[in-house]
Amino acid sequence: MTSVTPESIRQAHARIGAWVRRTPSLALPELGAVTLKLELLQHAGSFKTRGAFNNLLSRQVPPVGVTAASGGNHGVAVAQAAARRKVPARIFVPEIASKVKVAAITAAGAQVVVGGARYADAQAACDVFAKDTGALLLHPFDSFETMSGAGTVALEWEEDGGALDTVLVACGGGGLVAGMAAWWQKRVKVIAVEPEGSRCLHAALEAGQPVDVPVESIAADSLGARRVGSLVFEVAKTLVDRVVLVDDGQIRDAQRWLWAHPRLAAEPGGAAAFAALLGGRYQPAPGERVGVLVCGSNVDLATLGGP
After folding, report:
1. Could you tell me the CA-to-CA distances from 23 to 87, 123, 237, 294 in Å, in that order?
2. Domains in the chain and their CATH numbers?
3. How many angstroms separate the CA atoms of 146 and 178, rounded?
4. Each residue of 242-271: pLDDT tens digit?
5. H-helix or E-strand spanning residue 149
6. 25-27 vs 89-93, strand pairing mode
């Protein structure tokens, strides 16, 4: 199967339920009818754990193990999931990957290979390794298993009683926002949030097809895909309401607000969706029930209180 559906998401949820954390929600009445989904509390520090386990539990893993390319979070998730499933893992990272995330990958027991300057370079090196060795390639966003796993965030949010009109979701390669949109099927308005300097979904929707974009943002290690996935695009073009862009200053302000108020340590990519709300790039209608996904916590804590 290649098409992500509510049924594939239900199946993924049943498959991974014993391996992932059901993350809580937090109401922010001081901002109106706003609720955060705290996926930054997930194992490995991000939603990526869901897709990693859905891949490992639904596909045949060869003796050589698994491989993945990642700006950081997908690599941490795959490394930890592989360790729990007792299979070897080799993770290709770009030079821009944060030291915090690389350290977490190494601590989980995976082999780390620097695959080039940017994420796309690491993915190319990973693809060659998978072809040469037969290792199972776990794509960070553009695969049926990864998107279905990511979509379980939306299933849980709805099951836990979150009556929402709109959700704001950070977008890198787009697997998370596509998976969540596939679950809600327009019953809830799903808005993708991208950095101004890394806008692959925004550019694809403008062009009518995936296109390459330049990448330059403080969130590039998690939201730094050069091109949106083709499978992602097919879902997003019909089910994602629109893309909202935020600048790096707004992302940094969102990180600081989340740390100063609810005491949430969010990385730049994890705070990007909240930046759209806090910075006014998305302005809710009166009484609109807005959900914001805080999706990643792999951050150097020293950066949260600094300039």
Report:
1. 26, 29, 28, 11
2. 6-46+150-303 (3.40.50.1100), 49-137 (3.40.50.1100)
3. 10
4. 999 999 999 999 999 999 999 999 999 999
5. helix 144-159
6. unpaired
